[in-house]
Amino acid sequence: MYIDTITFIAIYIIIFLLCVNKNESVRAVGAILLVCHLTHDMFYANTPWPAFTDWGALALAGTLILSRDPFATTVGVVMSAAHIRNLIYGDQKFYRP
Length: 97
Description:
Elements: H1 2-19, H2 24-43, H3 52-65, H4 70-89
Helix pairs in contact: 1-2, 3-4
């Protein structure tokens, strides 16, 4: 239970940091992630993410990796790993063992 709360808070802190980044493409990815996460958490909190969102997240992660910003690149690598893991296992445990 606590790990879910910590993960939830960490995701929104990271998204906020992406939104205020000096790189325009990183800010755009942050804004997209903010809209997606807020929409899901406000309206679809009790339902799993649809399968197609993993592919969209991988595209956004690729944008972060290519941004040449060290923080954004790190976030992009972690996002990629989490969403690839979800594509393989399909259990909605993105950042948890």
